[in-house]
Write a structure and sequence with these properties.
single chain, 741 residues, mainly beta, Methylamine Dehydrogenase, Chain H, five-stranded mixed beta sheet, four-stranded antiparallel beta sheet, 2 helices, 48% strand, disordered N terminus, WD40_repeat_CS
């Protein structure tokens, strides 16, 4: 394969954690109850997490290609997993999760290719004898595999798209449901002695007057092959052991709710409903008798920082909007189950002794995560190591992945401890919900497009950490006060016609005059740079200047101090970098004059300024990193990617460590590169994102590189200890030089 380079288990970096997921579908989540192991799709990686609480563990299955995973399944023994993917020549891949001693392995065992375009469902039979894979409507194949040898046992032709599949208790048959179709497939076994591919025998269910219905989910109820299926209109249809439709359950006439997804647990049938609740029905007898219901512990526009007690998980405002359940992952032999909601939250419950119990939750952005920024470690407002992300869902989220530290105890919540706070800038609930997609081809492209259509595109925190600004796709600037626990929005400024691409505060400059006010600058896709001056003894900013020196979209703006004078550096896609100097200012006006304009050979993707080093680095679309001193003089240029890997793409974002020695380059080829700025040597190639990464940053302790992606996941890569030590040593030497100046 073109991209099969030995970079995936690089000695200088390893994947530590993944937060969020590509989406919530019944085929993209798997749960092994005996080992309490949860598998979920996140781009080209599978998150394998287990054991809530102190024994929590997380491992990862990382693809050796850039193709996104679409589905995952786990064997009944819990030692192996299977994945499906989308792209050219997609393969069903078998992974070893654990060895004989129960230790995590995460090793690719084999790849099995027969599908085209996309694989939408993989599923093991309950007795682990057979693996079943289903392709999208363009592939139109259902294939059974002897996964222990990699041989295919049988193939069937699909006549319509398949949305879900369920396997009988005795592993003798499976049922596929989709557009105007409920079909029973009889499964061959590896023990049958078949040495070549055969056709699968199938039989369509007798649908009667429901033959034009679109089915979205199904499950077997018991060993008599009684089965229920959910329709797109919210009805539940029951089929008997003779494959005949016998009964319809509907609640839409009363206007209460519609069924969306179903799953089987020991107590009965779980039904995810359109009003956000999960209802439990008894399967004993001829009818579905209601037993209990479960409201989600979260609602839209909820701030998890306010949830400290278990009772708060049950209390919601009267006007609360609940996200609808999109999938239920459960087992007929275990009371534990997982609910995936439309806001991409994933919550694990248990039903025991006629009561519900909340176990754990995973929250994240809905749609693209567009930017990331480390919170100043010197500020007392938030714990050290806090990260700030902005997403296309119109939220700014504050994260801390340092575990149970002392400074987190006062603000940690029981819902999602790593998510400290959420600030909602947009009031549109549709931004917080994934569109329900019945097209069974693969991951939706909406996530890649949403980064330029809505939400928060960039953020910036003041040097003291008491104030921050968020720029959105509608051209608005939201000023937020971080000195209060409720983080109020203190001002909204209409600055640009459309996307705000970069913002900066002047207090990040190396030096500044005490009698000089604080400035705020914003750059947009409308090619303008707007400068605002802070009103003395106030948190408000007033507009004081417009800079229109560029001919195309602004990509980055940075304040810096040169010989005690405030300068503003602006970079745009017109291949130019302009240095502006603050020449005069008053209470109503300020003037920036152009000092120098620098032309570079390729379009600029991003610019970073290194404090104390007085150097800025520009990342270009030719994948080069060009370094300039504070006066605009070229110092050196190095390759920002690895020539063995990067054959195409362009650098979109860059991040530099505090010493100015190492760079992280975010490239549109779906890789992220860690480079030595002095030698140009590529130290590590980070992968597994499955979608174009959007931004990256070093952690304050230089132990991690955190990458955000357009599919909604945040990847935390841990750097090797010797690389971290080199960064720390370089920073110590730099600070010694600064103090001696």
């Amino acid at each position: 394969m073109k991209y099969m380079v030995n970079i995936w288990f690089d000695s200088l970096a390893r994947l530590k954690n993944v937060v969020g997921r590509s989406g919530v579908t019944v085929n993209g989540i798997a749960l092994h109850h005996a080992s309490d192991t949860l598998l979920q799709v996140a781009g080209s990686s599978i998150i394998v997490s287990s054991a809530a609480g102190h024994n929590r563990f997380e491992g990862h299955l990382i693809s050796q290609t850039k193709q996104q995973f679409t589905c995952v399944a786990v064997t009944a023994c819990g030692r192996f997993a299977a994945t499906g993917e989308i792209g050219h020549q997609p393969a069903v891949r078998l992974w070893q999760l654990r060895d004989d001693q129960g230790n995590f392995v995460g090793r690719l065992v084999r790849s099995m290719q027969s599908h085209t375009v996309s694989i939408t469902i993989v599923r093991f039979t309950p007795d682990d004898s057979t693996l079943i894979s289903i392709g999208c409507q363009h592939d139109a194949q259902i294939i059974t595999w002897d996964w222990k040898t990699g041989h295919d046992l049988g193939i069937g032709k699909l006549m319509s798209p398949v949305n879900a599949m369920t396997v009988s208790f005795d592993s003798s048959m499976c049922v596929t449901v989709g557009s105007k179709s409920v079909k029973y497939w009889f499964l061959p076994l590896a023990s049958d002695g078949l040495n070549k591919r055969t056709g699968l025998t199938s039989r369509s269910a007798i649908l009667a007057d429901k033959r034009n219905v679109n089915f979205v989910d199904a499950t077997f109820c018991d060993s008599t092959n009684r089965m229920v299926a959910v329709t797109s209109s919210g009805e539940i249809l029951e089929f008997n052991g003779n494959k005949k439709y016998v009964k319809c359950y509907s609640w839409k006439e009363s206007g209460d709710f519609k069924a969306i997804c179903i799953a089987r647990i020991p107590e009965g049938l779980l039904v995810g409903c359109s009003d956000g609740l999960v209802r439990l029905f008894c399967l004993i007898g001829d009818d579905l008798d209601f037993l209990a219901d479960l409201a989600p512990p979260t609602h839209l526009f909820q701030d998890p920082s306010n949830v400290f007690e278990a009772q708060q998980l049950l209390n919601h405002p009267e006007d609360a909007i609940f996200p609808e359940p999109r999938c239920l992952v459960a087992s007929s032999s275990n009371p534990t189950f997982v609910v995936g909601y439309a806001d991409r939250s994933l919550i694990e419950f248990a039903r025991e002794n006629k009561s519900w119990s909340f176990r754990r939750a995973s929250l994240g952005h809905t749609g693209s995560v567009n930017c990331i920024e480390p919170f100043p470690s010197s500020s007392p407002c938030l714990p050290a190591g806090t990260l700030i992300t902005g997403g296309s869902d119109g939220t700014i989220r504050f994260w801390n992945f340092n575990g149970d530290t002392e400074d987190k105890k006062d603000i940690a919540n029981i819902l999602c401890p790593s998510l400290l706070k959420v600030v909602y800038l947009e009031e549109n609930p549709d931004l917080l919900l994934d569109k329900r997609n019945m097209e069974s081809v693969g991951p939706s492209n909406d996530d890649n497009q949403s980064a330029t259509s809505s939400g928060v595109l960039c953020t910036r925190v003041t040097h003291d950490g008491r104030m921050m600004i968020g720029g959105t796709a509608t051209g608005m600037l939201y000023l937020i006060d971080l000195s209060f626990s409720d983080t109020p929005i203190i001002d909204v400024i209409n600055a640009h016609d459309n996307d705000v691409t970069s913002i900066d505060f002047s207090d990040h400059a190396t030096t500044s005059s005490r009698d000089q006010p604080m400035f705020l600058a914003s750059g947009g896709r409308d090619r303008f740079v707007h400068v605002f001056r802070r009103i003395p003894y106030s948190s408000q900013f007033v507009h004081c200047a417009v800079l229109d020196g560029h001919q195309s979209a602004i990509k980055s703006i940075k304040f810096a101090s040169n010989n005690g004078q405030l300068h503003l550096y602006t970079a745009a896609t017109d291949r130019s970098l302009i240095i502006w100097k603050l020449s005069s200012f008053s209470e109503q006006h300020c003037e920036f004059t152009r000092v120098q304009q620098i032309s570079v050979p390729s379009s600029i993707g991003d610019m970073a300024f290194i404090k104390y080093v007085e150097m800025f680095v520009v990342g270009g679309h030719d994948r080069m990193l060009r370094q300039f001193d504070i006066n605009g003089k070229s110092i050196r240029e190095v390759k920002g990617t690895d020539d063995d890997v990067a054959h195409s793409g362009k650098i979109q974002k860059i991040a530099i460590d505090h010493s100015g020695s190492y760079a992280v380059s975010v490239c549109s080829d779906k890789y992220v590169y860690v480079t030595d700025l002095r030698t140009g040597v590529c130290l590590a190639v980070l992968c597994g994102f499955g979608a174009p990464p959007t931004d990256a940053t070093f952690s304050d302790d230089f132990k991690n590189v955190i990458v955000t992606t357009s599919n909604g996941a945040i990847f935390i890569w841990q750097l090797a200890k010797n690389l971290t030590e080199r960064m720390i040593s370089a920073q110590v030497r730099l600070m010694e030089e600064v103090t001696m100046r």
